[in-house]
Amino acid sequence: MPSEVKVGVVGCGHWGKNLVRNLHQLGALAQVCDVTAAGRARATEVAPGVPIVGDFSQAMTADVDGVVIATPAETHYTLAMQALLSSKDVFIEKPLALNYEQGEALVSLAEKRSQVLMVGHVLEYHPAIVRLTEIVRSGELGKVHYIYSNRLSLGKVRREENILWSFAPHDIAVILRLMDGMPMQVSACGGAYVQANIADVTVTNLLFDNGVRAHIHVSWLHPFKEQRLVIIGSKKMASFDDVSKQLLLYDQRVEWQEGQPMPVKNNGEEVAYPSGEPLRNECQAFLSAIESRRPPLTDGFSGLQVLKVLQGAQRSLMMNGELVALPLELYVPNGVEREL
After folding, report:
1. Handedness of CA 120, 280, 204, 192 (dihedral sign)
2. What is the pLDDT of residues 242-295, one digit of tens each?
């Protein structure tokens, strides 16, 4: 059954075409806008029969409830601001903006105008990540000790943004969700090997005030694809491999026996989780938020949290890995406490 909510998509490129496909299949796509002839041709193939335009102003005057922005990161702030000022609810691909001040301005405007602002942290809509979050919050793993996430491949090398801003937002968003809070400090180091001053590989370290540490290794200069998240707890351990689609729970830990630390080893047990395409779930969440007027899981505020960590990591990267403290006080819309 077609959706009663209608949206337009701006950008039908490498990733935008997937948003166009899903929203078209959900019966919610009313228009696609792309400034390039190639993008418009692609939209015609993916969403036959849907009006295609080449001017962003046409997207802003279209009779739609919301706008989905899937354009290069450096355009996010300007386009999202125009969309909000045009009284459209907005879904914007990650990152929310390229600095915290811009992100704060978008969140503040959306709050003042009671508009939906959603950020495309698609991994948070992955059924396996949702299930893993439930496991962590249930206490089954015990106290979380540390987390690591690898997102590696020989993938598309971008020229507009480095690997930290391209890949790491997904991992940061998930780790903040799992930890239900912000880290107190961040550090990052990496290297630029293909293009000057655009890092191809980075390792980011996060320290939370409860002692939990997390590290994020991202690279588009890697011989094989690996997308793995591992959580080490005091009682059990868990891992999710997004390549094999396996979520495993390990009844493994270290116990003290006669004054000596002894590892307790067991095989991993596969954990079932619902099927469903994460991007389809994300698109449905945007449509539901427009209809219900309730903030989506990855609202503007959660996008700000990720942006704060990214900005700190970028600063550390530029200072060759020096620690950067993250302030505990962050912008909170209307001064109301919000849950991650």
Report:
1. negative
2. 999 999 999 988 888 877 888 888 888 999 999 999 999 999 999 999 999 999
- The residue written with tokens 């992955």 in the block is 126
The pLDDT score that the predictor gives to residue 260 is 81
Rounded to two decimals, what is the model's pTM? Answer: 0.91
Residues whose CB is less than 8 angstroms from the CB of residue 84 and which lie 6 or more positions away in sequence, other chains included: 90, 106, 109, 110, 113, 115, 117
How many CB atoms lie under 10 A from the CB of residue 13?
16
CA 295/CA 286 separation, integer angstroms: 9
CB 83 within 8 A of CB 69: yes
Q: Which residues contact 91 (CB under 8 A, 6 or more apart)?
A: 7, 66, 67, 68, 69, 116, 118, 119, 120, 286
CATH of region 124-277+312-318: 3.30.360.10
The length of the chain in residues reads: 340
295-335 pLDDT per residue, tens: 999 999 999 999 999 999 999 999 999 999 997 555 555 54
The confidence score (pLDDT) of residue 329 equals 53
**What phi and psi values does residue 219 have, to the nearest 5 degrees?**
-165, 140
3-state helix, strand, coil in the chain (%, to 5): 35, 25, 40
